[in-house]
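Fill in residues.
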C-alpha cells in the first residue's frame, strides 16, 4: 500500500508539463492534492485533487489555499529565461509568498530550483551542492534567490525545505548536453514523492538528474536525507545524440548551455581571459 502524507499537499505550477505529470502521479497514489496555477488545469483533474486558480503575486490567496497543508511543492513561476520584469513577480515575490504560507502552516517546501542557478560554472568543473551560485540568466538568478529564501526560512523560522536543482526534465534527452543533465519525468515524480514523505530534512539541496553515466558535473548532495535514488538513465540515447551540439563556444563551455549564450556580450571566452573563480 502506498504511503500517504498526513496532511494535504499544495502543488503550485500544476498546469505546466511537470505539474501535470506530478499531479497525475501523486493523484494515482491517492494523495489529497490542492492544485494551483495562473492558467486553467488542462484536462480532467486527478482523483482526490481540487484546482484553484491563483496568481503567485497574490499572497493572501496563496495563504488561504495553503491552510492545513503539510507540504508545498513549489513548481510555479516563470519557467524559462525571460526579461527581469517578467521574472520579478512570479519568481521573486511569489517564492516569498510561498515561504510565508509555509511559515504560518509549519509546512515543508519542496522548491523546483534549476541548474541555471549555477549555470556559469564550466563543464570541466565538478560541483558539490554547497558550491557558489553562478546564475546564467534572470531566471537562474531567481532560482538562486529561491534557494537562499529557503536557507533564511530554515535558519530563522525552522521551515524545512528541499531545493531540487533540476537539470533537463523532458520526456527524452534531445542533445549531447542532456546526456549529462537529463532527469526523466518518472525520476522527478519519485523524487518529489520522497521529498514529501521523508523524515527530518532541514535545508537540503539535491541535484535533479537521472542516473546518467556522463553526469560528471554534479557530485555530493543531500539525497540520502530524502531517500531518493534515480532509476532511469540517458545512456540508451548516447549513440543517437553523440556529437549533437550547438556549435556555440559559450553554450558548450558552461553548464547552463544556451542560457549562458543568450544575450552574451563579452568577447568569446578563452582560457587566457577568464578567471577560474
Amino acid at each position: 500500500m502506498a504511503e500517504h502524507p498526513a496532511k494535504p499537499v499544495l502543488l503550485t505550477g500544476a498546469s505546466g508539463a511537470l505539474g501535470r505529470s506530478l499531479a497525475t502521479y501523486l493523484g494515482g497514489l491517492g494523495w489529497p492534492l490542492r492544485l494551483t496555477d495562473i492558467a486553467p488545469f488542462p484536462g480532467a483533474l486527478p482523483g482526490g485533487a481540487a484546482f484553484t486558480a491563483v496568481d503567485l503575486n497574490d499572497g493572501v490567496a496563496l495563504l488561504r489555499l495553503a491552510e492545513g497543508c503539510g507540504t508545498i511543492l513549489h513548481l510555479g513561476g516563470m519557467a524559462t529565461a525571460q526579461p527581469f520584469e517578467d521574472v520579478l513577480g512570479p519568481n521573486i515575490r511569489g517564492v516569498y509568498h510561498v515561504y510565508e504560507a509555509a511559515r504560518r502552516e509549519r509546512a515543508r517546501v519542496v522548491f523546483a530550483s534549476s541548474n541555471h542557478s549555477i549555470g556559469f560554472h564550466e563543464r570541466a568543473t565538478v560541483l558539490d551542492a554547497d558550491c557558489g551560485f553562478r546564475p546564467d540568466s534572470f531566471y537562474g538568478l531567481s532560482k538562486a534567490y529561491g534557494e537562499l529564501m529557503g536557507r533564511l526560512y530554515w535558519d530563522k523560522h525552522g521551515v524545512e525545505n528541499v531545493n531540487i536543482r533540476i537539470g533537463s526534465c523532458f520526456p527524452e534527452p534531445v542533445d549531447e548536453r542532456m546526456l549529462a543533465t537529463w532527469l526523466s519525468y518518472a525520476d522527478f515524480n519519485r523524487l518529489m514523492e520522497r521529498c514529501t514523505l521523508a523524515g527530518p530534512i532541514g535545508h537540503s539541496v539535491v541535484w535533479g538528474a537521472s542516473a546518467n553515466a556522463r553526469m560528471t558535473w554534479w557530485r555530493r548532495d543531500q539525497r540520502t536525507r530524502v531517500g531518493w535514488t534515480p532509476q532511469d538513465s540517458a545512456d540508451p540515447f548516447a549513440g543517437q545524440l553523440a556529437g549533437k551540439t550547438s556549435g556555440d563556444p559559450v553554450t558548450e563551455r558552461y553548464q547552463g548551455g544556451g542560457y549562458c549564450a543568450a544575450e552574451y556580450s563579452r568577447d568569446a571566452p578563452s582560457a587566457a581571459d577568464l578567471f577560474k573563480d
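The radius of gyration is 18 Å.
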